[in-house]
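Below sits my pick:
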Amino acid sequence: MPTRNRPYAVARAAYAAILLAVLGLALGAAPAAAHGFSSTVYADLTAPERGHVRAELGLEYDLLVVSTADAEKDDALFREGTAAFDARDTARQAAALTGHTGSVVGYVSKRFAVTAQGQACTPSQDGGYTMTERDGVPYALLVLDYSCPEHAEAHEIRSALFGNDEGYVRDTKTILTYELDLKSGSAALDTQRPSFSTQQSWTERFWDFFRLGAEHLLTGLDHILFLLALIAGSRRLREIVLAATSFTVAHSVTFVLAALGLVKVPASFVEPVIALSIAVVAGWHLWRLRQRGLHAGELDTIRNGHFSLDRAGWIRLGVVFCFGLVHGLGFASALGIDAAWSWQLLWSLLVFNVGLEAVQLSLIVLVFPVLALLRRRTPVAGLWVTGALSAGVAVTGLVWFVQRVTGS
């Protein structure tokens, strides 16, 4: 092979490899559901009186049905519950749980425990089941009253709901909000940290929510692809820095507002727009490649403002900011906290956001210098690689958009 053709051959090979890899993700990943391979349990714990702990549990309906049916050997619950789920009939879903409440409460009480001063609290169901929806997924609200020793000064909560051992989902998160033992706040439980004590230190709470934020971005393929599209289409370091900053500011605003319950937008709108944002940002770079070819990475002569951005750069920044507002609503759904405003809650939200940003910055530091070096050393190969990455991401976004709109 002649030397002058090698960059083109390498670039085409990279193009094909990246395109196939991203398309594989698009076809292999869970198409429309945000929860995909994991689930989130929401638990709100209060103490109406001494010796009494009330737990309001939000449980993903289809997982509750299959996990309970399997653990409690209740085949009838599986048949009735699955039929109600497929029919999207919330009344039938609640009726299926009510008709098998012994199995449901039995499963939940074995995997969600409250202890006081080392003594197990005894659970009993309060009321029936209320159906709701989170991230476009049906959830069942179950209220359990725990009888505990009256003079306990600390409580411990342990959750193993929808655990890895069941084989249905991976690493379920349990998000706690609590007002117990004259303390209030939030906590995050998972396989690595399955329990929480009201005596937990602030450093432990910080790490819990920092890790939860980092893991949410790392396991959220749609947010990662959006970030990769930003990186691939950025022509200079200042562009990716400004784009990432714009994205951060935008999603931080809506993230906090939504998690505090001040802004509510249905997941049926948020999830498709997130998918569309991936396609648009990736398609932006493809459009520049088609219009300008080898000059796609160059800035226009006329630049405006202190940041030395050209017209295309400013427009792109505005688009990223608008989409960042929508992504913030998606981030907020990971916490799903509907509690009233408090300093403890705001602290949890901000730490969660710090975890998100730490991963975002790490990805930029790892990926952008490599692409920048490739563009400088071999401009043609750099264009092919960024074009391949953008093409794969754009197709993925479009596929997800169609699936999330149609509910397929």
User: Anything to note?
Assistant: The two ends are 47 Å apart (CA to CA).
